[in-house]
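Hey, sorry to bother you again with one of my protein questions. I've been puzzling over a protein and I'd love to understand its fold better. Take your time with it, there's no hurry, and the full record follows here:
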Amino acid sequence: MKITNRGIVLALKNLGAYLGSYTASGIKADPYQFMYGLIIFCLVTIPSDLFLLNHWSNSDKKKKGG
């Protein structure tokens, strides 16, 4: 699987959204609970974003004929 720029940007966006929502909500969570939630979130969203954007970039290349 090739990692594309769009995939990296989308993965970082999702990570930032998670951290931003955690900070903005003002929840005083246990640090271990926070890290557990962050790891689960990253394990789910980052590979799926990279996979989807890889397919999007491949479909763009097929449409352009390359």
Summary: The first helix runs from residue 5 to 25.
